Amino acid sequence: MTATAANPDRITMYGAAWCGDCRRSKALLDRRGVDYEYVDLEVQVEAAETAKSISGRTNIPVVVFPDGTHFTEPTDAELGAKLDAVGA
Q1: pTM exceeds cut of 0.85
Q2: What's the pLDDT tens digit per position in 20-32?
């Protein structure tokens, strides 16, 4: 299967430094040592459309998993449970 934005090879997080929820989710991924790709929407402005196409919303962060599932603005509990489920 070819990797796409909706089914990446590894966890991908779309976010921005000004976003508190993004900083919180990124910190959780970093604390857990998760191998993930961070797409900085302040640097890759066009990627905001990709994040919106995945989530159907303009809210961030959008965290996409290789199984095609995603979270938009997840709580630490939601993101942690999903990471546990996928072994990350």
Answers
A1: yes
A2: 999 999 999 999 9
